[in-house]
Amino acid sequence: MNERLLSMEADFIKALAHPTRIRIIKYLMNSERCVCEFTEDLDVEQSNMSQHLAILRKQGIVSSRKDGMKVMYKVNHLQIFEILQLIEDILVSQVKETLSILSKKGREDENGY
Question: Which one, out of 47, 50, 67, 81, has a CA that is 20 to 30 A from the CA of 18?
Answer without folding.
Answer: 67
